[in-house]
Amino acid sequence: MSPWYKLQNEEQADSPSLLIYKERVASNIQKMIDIAGNAERLYPHVKTNKMPEVVKMMLAAGISKFKCATIAEAEMAAMAGAKYVVVAHQLMGPKVKRLLAFRQQYPDVFVGSLIDSASVAKEHNDVFGASGLVSDVFLDVNNGMDRSGHALDGDILGLYQLLHQLPNISCHGLHVYDGHLRTPDFESRRHEVEDGFVDVQHFLEAIAEAGLPRPIIVAGGTPTFTVHALHAETYCSPGTCVLWDWGYGDKLPEQPFEYAALVLTRVISKPKAGFITVDMGHKAVAAENPIDKRIRFLNLNNYELVGQSEEHGVIRVENWDTINVGDVLYGVPFHVCPTVNLYDEAYVVENQSVVDTWQVLGRKRRITV
């Protein structure tokens, strides 16, 4: 029996290409729901898949809320049928007007965004107020990642109060992303996550003492998903687990997800003994990591990726004599999210055959809004 990833109709797949194994996507979605306990606790991040059909699969499984990184991803999700999306960025300047335009174009879709600054909150209030609308927001909390969010200091309660005072702002909850916590040992990671939430709990107590509405909490990403899932009051927002990748697969051993997205490439040259070249350059697999952390080939042993340019990947191999120009290699990206973003479309695989193509619509900077 051939390996699970090998296509029976390889000749129908151009290279380099992105392969989406539909049965495995469905399995990963169900595992995500099982870990959360129910679909209502999930806010999956669509930045990983960026495909309307994957969003439709999650909707069919009972998931109704989604996070996204861009307004275009939010529109992609809305076009797929999602009625609740949160743009996990603080939007300012022209993006506030784009967010307003999204709200006007999709009036039946809840669209939220993040706020960590009083000045941006006032900008949202003014722009939405001028159109007689309300901007739905979540207070972005920095509990240690130091990338965005308001620090858990003496000023954060005042910002939360402001978000409840501005007439054209509606604050629904807290967004707490602790993506910096990736210790492989689960128990160690669990302690780090829970220690990082001590000050968040103190903030919730201060909110209650001030007589302000208790917020919902949307927390974490894929690395901390299995910890936040243990706490029933928290909503979880994993993303990578829908497709999975080599990086998290090795780093998060307790998570049961399967590789559901591969890069297919072909040997295009054997330039000298011991070396092969494939049509997998920087444009085919995410290149933000060192060269030894870009792709792991499933059907090649004893090799080393030694060089990449835009269209080429050069690999040192031991079994050079047994490899032919035209051979197909299947690789797992180290980081699947930016790898998906490199492709306009993906081949859909069922029963080891290409059966369809899906547009990676969410990779656009702008769709219509």
Automatic annotation (TrEMBL):
Sorted UniProt keywords: Lyase
SUPFAM superfamilies noted in UniProt: PLP-binding barrel
Domain D-serine dehydratase-like, chain residue ranges per copy: 260-350
InterPro entries: Ala_racemase_N, D-amino_acid_metab_enzyme, D-ser_dehydrat-like_dom, D-ser_dehydrat-like_sf, PLP-binding_barrel
GO-annotated molecular function: D-serine ammonia-lyase activity
Superkingdom per UniProt: Bacteria
A biological-process GO annotation: D-serine catabolic process
Name of a matching Pfam family: D-ser_dehydrat
Family the entry assigns: Belongs to the DSD1 family.
Name of protein: D-serine deaminase-like pyridoxal phosphate-dependent protein
